[in-house]
């Protein structure tokens, strides 16, 4: 069985000094935070307006523990995310089979497969990280929780990352795994040939693109989309993208940098930025979750509404008081409810 690395002594000490540890059941659940900032001088409308945000009281003490939102140095950013993930205790994987393997493609794609007892259905799961950070190790605790909560076989995908491998490398990897999963669902021990695609943040954006490509190419049948805080729109023109400049963990500049790394010199297409798609008809039913204080919030809500307008069944949940990635704070009741809901809606989606 595989698990997250033990937290370093330095990380433990800093976390304990705050009375809080990421991804534990310990921590304060009272108090509140209200932070005001004046937007830095930019161009056009992004000048000198005040924006106020208030996170849920139970998330307050966690804000300083998240890494600085900076993708100017991708290697350093990956290290910071890996440190955060390593600070989490290993999840309980009792009764779950975990297997590392490679899916044949060009190049082959590393995946980690999670099989809970009496599994039903398959989820191809794509980690977050702004198209730049994250891997099978950092995603391990979350893949375990999704598999446990849903009862599905979860295939966590180690897709290629920008800037070394810009678009469409990550999409190609994810699509190859989706096609493989659909073909091999029976032998994966899923008890069903029903296959879903999902992810968090940038991974959720890639998942939405996989669904679009599968529809357009008449590719693998996808039964459900699980889109958690998806990153979908490179234009950054929504209200939340323009106004949430310095919200915790995800900022305007970090989002802009992630798109620069991902797109490189290529123009954005609907498969890179699904919000650009004019036709969303014929896509699988979807669950879309957003965080209140997240620059990506409004593009995800608008995408969910556009899916509805196109006749696609959608469940949309906007989580009050949360910020991008705050569900890593397992001491918070809202985080536990978010994680439980992901599992529950996936179970329903695979049963439909």
What order do the helices and strands come in, and which of them pair?
Elements: H1 9-17, E1 35-38, E2 50-53, H2 74-86, E3 97-103, E4 109-115, E5 122-126, H3 140-150, E6 153-157, H4 169-184, E7 195-200, H5 202-216, E8 224-228, H6 239-243, H7 252-263, E9 286-293, H8 297-309, E10 314-323, H9 333-351
Parallel strand pairs: 5-6, 5-7, 7-8, 8-9, 9-10
Antiparallel strand pairs: 1-2, 3-4, 4-6
Helix pairs in contact: 3-9, 4-5
Number of helices: 9
Assign the structural class, choosing from mainly alpha, mainly beta, alpha/beta, alpha+beta, or little secondary structure. Answer: alpha/beta
Largest sheet: 8 strands, mixed
The shape, in one word, is globular
The end-to-end distance, rounded to whole angstroms, is 31 Å
Oligomer: single chain
Report the radius of gyration as a whole number of Å: 19 Å
Order of helices and strands: HEEHEEEHEHEHEHHEHEH
Percent strand: 15-25%
> Strands of the largest sheet, in order across it?
3-4-6-5-7-8-9-10
Strands, count: 10
Determine the mean pLDDT: 86
**Low-confidence spans: pLDDT under 50, at least 5 residues?**
1-50
Q: Determine the fraction of residues in helical runs and give it as a percent range.
A: 25-40%
């Amino acid at each position: 069985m595989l698990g997250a690395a033990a937290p370093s002594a330095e990380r433990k000490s800093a976390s304990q000094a705050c009375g809080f540890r990421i991804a534990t059941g310990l921590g304060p659940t009272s108090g509140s935070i209200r932070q005001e900032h004046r937007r830095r001088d930019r161009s056009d409308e992004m000048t000198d307006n005040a924006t106020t945000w208030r996170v849920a009281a139970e998330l307050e003490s966690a804000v300083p523990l998240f890494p600085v939102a900076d993708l100017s140095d991708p290697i350093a950013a990956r290290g910071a995310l890996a440190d955060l993930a390593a600070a989490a205790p290993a999840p309980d994987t009792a009764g779950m089979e975990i297997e590392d393997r490679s899916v044949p493609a060009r190049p082959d794609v590393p995946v980690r497969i999670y099989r809970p007892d009496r599994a039903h259905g398959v989820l191809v799961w794509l980690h977050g990280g702004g198209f730049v950070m994250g891997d099978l190790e950092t995603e391990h605790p979350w893949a375990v929780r999704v598999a446990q909560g849903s009862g599905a076989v979860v295939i966590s995908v180690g897709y290629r990352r920008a800037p070394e491998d810009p678009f469409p490398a990550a999409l190609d990897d994810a699509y190859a795994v989706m096609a493989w999963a659909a073909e091999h669902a029976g032998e994966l021990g899923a008890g069903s040939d029903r296959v879903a695609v999902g992810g968090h943040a940038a991974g959720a954006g890639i998942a939405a693109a996989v669904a679009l490509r599968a529809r357009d190419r008449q590719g693998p049948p996808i039964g459900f989309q699980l889109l958690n805080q998806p990153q979908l729109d490179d234009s950054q023109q929504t209200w939340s993208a323009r106004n949430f400049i310095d919200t915790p963990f995800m900022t305007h500049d970090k989002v802009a940098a992630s798109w620069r790394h991902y797109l490189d010199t290529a123009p954005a297409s609907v498969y890179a930025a699904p919000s650009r798609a004019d036709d969303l008809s014929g896509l699988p039913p979807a669950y879309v979750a957003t965080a209140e204080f997240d620059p990506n919030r409004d593009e995800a809500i608008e995408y969910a509404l556009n899916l509805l307008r196109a006749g696609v069944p959608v469940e949309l949940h906007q989580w009050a008081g949360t910020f991008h990635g705050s569900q890593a704070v397992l001491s918070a009741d809202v985080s536990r409810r978010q994680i439980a809901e992901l599992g529950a809606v996936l179970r329903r989606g695979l049963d439909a």
